[in-house]
Design goal:
This is DUF3159 domain-containing protein. The protein is mostly helical. Helix content is about 75%, strand content about 0%.
Length: about 210
């Protein structure tokens, strides 16, 4: 019997997180080498452009990589505008804080964002919500994602307040691919533990009133 697809395979989360870590690594390299916001921003943009070129060459969808490049450009503009190197990571700090609130609220109102994302990827729209067991599994697994964003905010916020741009860049790299990989593995484990034996899996929700 074929093994069910994992969340990592469905969402390509590790690849996206790895791509996102390169601009932060570039900023760190430029900052450590020259202690200059301009050098850090230039290195980050070069790294982001490199990721975009690589992904487009491999035939990946341009929208995702271009959104990532746009995020790096906005972060660069903020840092150059304020003259503070740590502000390159302000957008990341705010987005992770907003993610904590959004994911928590989605669980409370019984629209867990993990289910929304996976349902969209699988072309199910809202059909997964009519399966009570799948709804429960997505709700429990979404708490793992909340914890992921809480960890980032807990690390980023004091470093940002202290103006530690280099430490922020290093933390951004460490809390990208490794943390996302752990989050995907943990949330997939929660889903598997929550779904009862004999459930057909994520691709085949049972149509029952939620």
């Amino acid at each position: 019997m074929a093994q069910p697809e994992s969340l990592s395979e469905l969402l390509n989360g590790r690849r996206a997180a790895l791509d996102a870590s390169w601009p932060a690594a570039g900023f760190l390299a430029g900052w450590l080498a020259f202690h200059s916001i301009g050098a850090g921003v230039a290195s980050a943009l070069l790294a982001a452009l490199g990721v975009v070129g690589w992904r487009l060459r491999r035939g990946d969808k341009p929208r995702a990589v271009l959104i990532g490049l746009l995020g790096v450009c906005v972060a660069a503009l903020i840092a150059l505008r304020t003259g503070k190197a740590e502000d390159f990571f302000l957008l990341q700090l705010l987005s992770n804080g907003a993610s904590v609130l959004a994911w928590t609220l989605s669980i409370v109102i019984r629209w867990p964002l993990l289910g929304v994302v996976v349902g969209a990827v699988l072309g199910q729209r809202t059909r997964w919500r009519r399966d009570p067991e799948l709804l429960k599994a997505y709700s429990r697994a979404s708490w793992v994602w909340v914890l992921q964003y809480v960890v980032r905010v807990a690390v980023f916020l004091p470093l940002y307040a202290a103006g530690q741009a280099g430490a922020l860049a290093a933390a951004r790299v460490v809390l990208s691919w490794p943390l996302v990989a752990a989050c995907l593995a943990a949330s997939w484990w929660v889903i598997q533990r929550t779904l009862p034996a004999g459930h057909p899996g994520l691709r085949h929700p049972l149509d029952q009133p939620a």
